[in-house]
Structure formats: structure tokens, C-alpha cells
């Protein structure tokens, strides 16, 4: 399958600090990709490199088979909604649509105006008078009407209330299905990604800790609970992601593709949020070394 984004040893350095380091990814097209990690993990840096706003310090990156920002044709294929869902406060909704039409050769004006009508936005109202949720929806409409092959969104719902977040994500999912968009959505809210994404990347302290299709990640990770046991006594094909112990009991989250036959263990599924937190904890304990890539 064609890769929508391919990075090899990608890094970005500011002075002595690496904002992104040794990032290697191969994301297949046709997915809604969730990029999750704590604040300061490097998510925005990765996305800004992917859309051509930053040049990497190290490594290579291709987006839709070409270098980000390499020319008008490549720029036309990528839509980007930044973290502050940028709009121009002094321009009306209609002004934004006219500007979008002038700047984007693949602009779909009928699509843009239909979405504005469905959202109930007054075309003559200035963006500065809109609510946060309405501005976010306007920014998303501009990104969708560009008719990109890849839509990149950097924490677009971070400042929205729960209802506005749900409405935003619902419209995003409709657009992804209708236009067969590939989407990369950054967030530190795992619950939002769980409802909308089928591919996940965990980024912690500037490094990729885990990536892969959500169903595969959930099917290959298990919680084991049983009598206290040292992790070194587990079979070699059970890779320990996190461990906790009481005086008599041990609980492990492990990655394995093999059946777990040991009758001493109670085996249960791991939810997406617990899995993400396990890798974040693993990263902290391991000094932020890369932990896992899961790809088909």
C-alpha cells in the first residue's frame, strides 16, 4: 500500500535540544491517524515538517511521495489546520471562502458553501465574532474544500468544549469517508482519538514509542494478572511494556502474537488509553528510547 508519510531517522534540533529525534515512520494511505503524546513531545514539530513549514535537521521525509513543500503541486495535495485553528478575525466567513478559492487550485466552492450552510454559519459574520467551535469548523471547512489527499490537523479541538469537540470530529469523519482522505490528527486526548482513528502513533520526549493499526495494537497487547512474579521469568515472546506489583500479585501489560497458556495468569484486554499510558511510562523508565513499531 502507498505510504502517505515516510520518514527515516527524521530529527529537528533547536540549539542543543532535539524537538524530534530519530523518527522513523511508514504510514499507509487511507487511514485516519491519531498522533498522541504529552505536551512538548514533538507532535507539532513533526506535523510542521510534514506540511513543509519546517526543514528537518536530520534524516529524510516524504509526504505523498515527494518532499514536503517542494512545489505548488505538492502543496495543493496537503491541507493543514494548525493548533490555534487560524482564521482572520476581521474577515467574514464569506471572505474566507473567497480567499480559499483564490489560493487553492483544487478548491471546491460548492462543498465549502454547503458545509457552511449545514453548520449554520452566517456568511456575513466576521470570524472574530464566532465562537471557538465555529472558528474551528470554519478552519476545517477551508482545509476540506482545498480537496487535499492528506489533511493534517494539529490539536484542533484542544480548546473546545466536549460538545464542540464531538461535532468537529463527526464532521471530520464524514469528510474523510466522503472524500477518501488520509488524515493525521494530533491530540493528547486519547478518548477523542479512540472514537475517530484507526491508526495510532505514540510520541514521547521527541521519539516514536509505538505505531500501528489500532485493531492490531489492541489484539497483540494483553494484561496479565496473577501471583507475584519477576518479569524475567516470562516467556521470551512476551515483551513487557509495563509492570506493577503488590506483595502477592503482579500485573503486566505485554505484547505478544502467541497464545498465553499459563493457567496462573488471568488474561484481559487492554483499552487504548491504558495502552498509551503504558508506553508513556515505559518511555520514562527507559530514558525515552524507542520501544515499538507495529506495522502491517
From TrEMBL:
CDD domains: ABC_DR_subfamily_A. The keyword Hydrolase does not apply. SMART domains: AAA. It comes from Actinomadura barringtoniae. The lineage of its organism: Bacteria, Bacillati, Actinomycetota, Actinomycetes, Streptosporangiales. Keywords: ATP-binding, Nucleotide-binding, Transport. Pfam families: ABC_tran. Residues 5-230 form the ABC transporter domain. One of its GO terms (molecular function) is ATP binding. The keyword Nucleotide-binding applies. This is ABC transporter ATP-binding protein. InterPro entries: AAA+_ATPase (IPR003593), ABC_transporter-like_ATP-bd (IPR003439), ABC_Transporter_VariousFunc (IPR051782), P-loop_NTPase (IPR027417).
Amino acid at each position: 500500500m502507498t505510504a502517505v508519510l515516510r520518514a527515516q531517522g527524521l530529527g529537528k534540533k533547536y540549539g542543543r535540544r532535539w524537538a524530534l529525534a530519530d523518527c522513523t515512520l511508514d504510514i499507509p494511505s487511507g487511514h485516519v491517524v491519531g498522533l498522541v503524546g504529552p505536551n512538548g513531545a514533538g507532535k507539532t514539530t513533526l506535523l510542521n515538517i510534514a506540511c513543509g513549514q519546517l526543514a528537518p535537521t536530520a534524516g529524510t521525509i516524504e509526504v505523498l511521495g515527494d518532499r514536503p513543500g517542494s512545489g505548488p503541486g505538492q502543496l495543493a495535495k496537503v491541507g493543514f489546520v494548525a493548533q490555534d485553528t487560524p482564521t482572520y478575525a476581521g474577515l467574514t466567513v464569506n471572505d474566507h471562502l473567497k480567499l480559499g478559492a483564490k489560493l487553492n487550485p483544487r478548491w471546491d466552492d460548492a462543498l465549502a458553501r454547503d458545509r457552511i450552510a449545514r453548520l449554520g454559519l452566517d456568511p456575513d459574520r466576521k470570524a472574530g465574532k464566532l465562537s471557538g467551535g465555529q472558528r474551528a469548523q470554519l478552519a476545517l471547512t477551508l482545509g476540506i474544500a482545498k480537496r487535499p489527499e492528506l489533511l493534517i490537523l494539529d490539536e484542533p479541538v484542544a480548546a473546545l468544549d466536549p460538545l464542540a469537540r464531538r461535532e468537529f470530529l463527526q464532521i471530520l469523519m464524514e469528510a474523510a469517508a466522503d472524500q477518501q482522505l488520509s488524515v493525521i490528527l494530533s491530540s493528547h486526548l486519547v478518548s477523542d482519538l479512540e472514537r475517530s482513528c484507526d491508526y495510532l502513533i505514540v510520541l514521547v520526549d521527541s521519539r516514536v514509542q509505538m505505531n500501528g493499526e489500532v485493531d492490531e495494537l489492541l489484539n497483540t497487547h494483553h494484561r496479565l494478572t496473577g501471583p507475584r512474579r519477576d518479569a524475567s521469568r516470562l516467556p521470551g515472546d512476551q515483551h513487557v511494556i509495563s509492570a506493577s506489583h503488590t506483595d502477592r500479585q503482579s500485573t503486566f501489560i505485554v505484547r505478544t502474537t502467541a497464545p498465553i497458556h499459563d493457567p496462573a495468569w488471568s488474561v484481559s484486554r487492554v483499552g487504548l488509553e491504558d495502552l498509551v499510558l503504558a508506553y508513556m511510562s515505559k518511555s520514562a523508565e527507559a530514558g525515552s528510547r524507542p520501544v515499538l513499531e507495529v506495522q502491517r
